[in-house]
Amino acid sequence: MDYDLVVIGAGPVGGYVAGAVAEKGYRVALVEEHREVGEPVQCGGLVTPRVFDLVPGKETVLNEVRGADIHVPSGRHARIDAGETEAVVVDRARFDRAIVKHALKRGVKSLLGAKALAARYQDGGVEVVLVKDGEQQRLTTQILVGADGVQSSVAKWFHILRPKYILPGFEVEMTGVDVDPSFVTLFVGNEIAPGFFGWIIPSGGDRGRVGLCVKEGNAFAYLERMMAGPAKPYLKKAQPLQYIAGGIPFGFPRRTYADRVMIVGDAACQVKGTSGGGIYSGLRCAAHCADAAIEALEAGDFSARQMRTYHRAWVKSVGKELRKDLAIFESFARLTDRQVEELFDIFSEPEMVRIIQ
């Protein structure tokens, strides 16, 4: 075998798995179709500070956030203030690179600009076909991990899962944004972002990330409408710097493994249905993925039964929370604007605000 482990996708989750397994002395390759880790950015970059209990990258923090200003369709809004840092805004490209750099120091071989075209079982292992600089390459590995995002090719090749929902999203990094840097601004309502919500994430100085996701429809068209409507007072002097498009996968897969194969992160729908955040939950699942890979390599057992230890571990760890969040999303997506207003009245009561904070 060329490698003991091949990871497709050099995001935070893939980088973590690769580094953790290589640290035990195994031969690990990290395959990334783009020529630069972290590019293109496809994320708002708002994460819990707890991610730094798992990975390096504190130097990538741009701003700290302690609460949210929530706007409802009638134009009313309320502030939720936790009084202390609840989330941090990171430079997502640098954050990804910090994790991958950490992995490379542990012996991981990186293959950038290499697109995985196919993978199949071959001679007691897995063969991965890549194209790099116009030429095909073939790798063989004992275990293949798909950390290749929303439209995971690994999940499709091995018939593991398809997301129940993929929410299209669009975001603009802007300068000249006029918001309180300690608070995320949120916009809800079916005219603004049907089935989900819009946001302004302050990313340091006068910069902000203005975006939204929708359950269905043209995310860019809805974003333009939001920027010309409820978000307009905050964007009078704003100018775009970068456009970001992406999707959020929701679902709770029955299986995230096959013989010699595991999928993790967005590829496995390990995303919070309430916020769309997947970095922290994905990293927690990545730790279980790495543990299962190391255990399989030590035992020389690469069967689906062995790989199932990963699925069971992550479900036990974060499954209850992710199931609950998915149920909340599905309920929220069915609300009318009138029901949103009624909930806003309830959540604005002093005792409810205290509980939320």
Strands, total number = 18
Report the sheet-strand fraction.
25-35%
How far the N terminus sits from the C terminus, by CA atoms, comes to 53 Å
User: Judging from the principal axes of the Cα atoms, what is the shape?
Assistant: globular
**What is the CA-based Rg, rounded?**
21 Å
Give start-end ranges of low-pLDDT stretches. Answer: none
Biggest β-sheet strands, sense, barrel: 8 strands, mixed
Amount of helix: 25-40%
User: What is the ordering of alpha helices and beta strands?
Assistant: EHEEEEEEHEEEEHEEEEHEEEHHHH
The total of helices stands at 8
Structural category: alpha/beta
Mean of pLDDT? 96
Secondary structure elements and pairings:
Blueprint: E1 3-8, H1 12-22, E2 28-32, E3 46-47, E4 61-65, E5 67-71, E6 77-81, E7 87-90, H2 92-105, E8 109-112, E9 114-122, E10 125-132, E11 135-146, H3 153-157, E12 165-175, E13 183-187, E14 198-202, E15 207-213, H4 219-228, E16 239-250, E17 257-258, E18 261-263, H5 279-299, H6 304-333, H7 337-347, H8 350-356
Parallel strand pairs: 1-2, 1-11, 2-8, 5-13, 11-18
Antiparallel strand pairs: 3-7, 4-7, 5-6, 9-10, 10-11, 12-15, 12-16, 13-14, 14-15, 17-18
Describe the structure.
48% of the residues are buried. Strand 17 and strand 18 form a beta hairpin. The protein is of the alpha/beta class and 357 residues long. The strands form three sheets. Strands 1, 2, 8, 9, 10, 11, 17 and 18 form an eight-stranded mixed sheet that branches. The mean pLDDT is 96.
